[in-house]
């Protein structure tokens, strides 16, 4: 368990002070904080979290897409951020519509996002605007479909 | 997995060469597409996916308990670390508190896993660089640890010993004696490895100043574990976000500042010593008795005794193993310090008996991204050292 909910709220406070409208929703679950932001705001919010001297979320742990098919907006992308100085984690979530899963790439900000975004493209078909080379990474190049989508069967014919 | 390669040699007469996917020093099925000028690596591009088995997709079709067996197969050199991380994630979803004795056993076994994994790394890394003896020595001691795992869980490698809420079985009588015996016998062996390598001129020549990574680059690339600590960043999840009662143990986070292959060697050897310290403390302070599993009717299986004697126990047992259990809807991200770095499990529940989504944040996958930074501009033979030093497990990279 990570018992630092007290300080997590203060990170949220800082974001709120900076731009209260950027946070669409705040989710607290089991001591973890998730900020839901719009895809237009994603890069702005991340740049703020990255560069603000009080926050310094310089470490991107992971990018996790979730497919909520058949619900809309279909995709959720979760960015697991870590501030080494504050010893604090924060999750940024963006929801994307199923017919247009396009989002800003964060590779310019965190080089580590490169492979995570390629994986999200490969397995979910989410496209990242501004990514240096958005190609498949785990599946063969000529593969059809995106295996981790919920409408892609686990076994049998596609 | 990219099959198209830019094979056009420029005016510099660069040659494109495939290293792997079948190459002993790529530790499995890693393929590196190299652009070489003579023996100098101009560009190194990792091509992965040859071991992709769709574990994340498979886990969506299994119940939470069945998923544990999938986690063994990710990082097959440290299966207990994977078990632990997944169980912690599901336990956090459920809000279960694990009994202290089970927590201590978990700590003890994951630290043995760390030693075992570092031994494989040391042996294979050394053999890549031409030091055969260390490999034989390392695997000899690793065998002792595998025997402990086999004694406790019944399996050498795919243990699946940690379960949601605690452990699979009561550990057998006398297992702590075996651990104590190992604690006696192992420290002289670390000295043996160090005698062979630490001041060996060939070893120094092959590793010092090779594969340099600055702290800023390491953080930007998301590198974690011994790689990050060898670059001088003091980040160890066991200290930063303690889990499974690690806050009760006294150990040091091993860091170096040089950021080269030799520094990573030093960090990992030092970590083996620290792990021994933790194992000793766990052994000394292990609660003598107490449950090895939490008690939560309908979610954690009842004890054997209860299942055989009470009707509720029998019903719960049957329901848990046929239908599984359903955590409340929500999503959690649990990270632990695996031998390779930050191992994370993102588990999303929709309130049914199967996880809606499981994402593995595999440390090897992320660490491998740093390979071009380590190897480009250096000799081809240094690339071998760089691949060895990142300590990747392809099972986890490709999932």
Give structural notes.
By secondary structure, chain A is of the alpha/beta class. Chain A has three helices and seven strands; from the N terminus they run H-E-E-H-E-E-E-E-H-E. Chain A has one domain: 2-Layer Sandwich (Beta Polymerase, domain 2), CATH 3.30.460.80. Chain A has a five-stranded mixed β-sheet. Chain A has a two-stranded parallel ribbon with strand order 6-7. The relative contact order of chain A is 0.14. The N terminus of chain A is likely disordered. The two termini of chain B are 13 Å apart. The relative contact order of chain B is 0.19. At the A-B interface, strand 3 and helix 3 of A face helix 1, strand 6, strand 7 and strand 8 of B.
CATH topology of chain B: Cytochrome-c3 Hydrogenase, chain B
Q: Tell me the number of structural domains of chain A.
A: 1
Give average pLDDT of chain B, whole number.
89
Strand segment count of chain A: 7
Structural class of chain A: alpha/beta
Strand order of the largest sheet of chain B: 1-2-3
- Report the span from N to C terminus of chain A: 40 Å
What summary fits the major beta sheet of chain A? 5 strands, mixed
Instruction: State Rg of chain A.
Output: 16 Å
Number of helices of chain B: 17
Q: Indicate the low-confidence ranges of chain B by residue numbers.
A: none
Under CATH, the homologous superfamily of chain B reads Cytochrome-c3 Hydrogenase, chain B
Query: Under the CATH scheme, which class of chain B?
Result: Mainly Alpha
* Helical/strand content category of chain B: mainly alpha
Strand order of the largest sheet of chain A: 1-2-5-4-3
What is the CATH topology descriptor of chain A?
Answer: Beta Polymerase, domain 2
What characteristic shape of chain A results from the CA principal axes? globular
> Given this structure, which CATH class of chain A is correct?
Alpha Beta
Shape of chain B: globular
**Helix-strand topology string of chain A:** HEEHEEEEHE
Determine the fraction of residues in helical runs of chain A and give it as a percent range: 10-25%
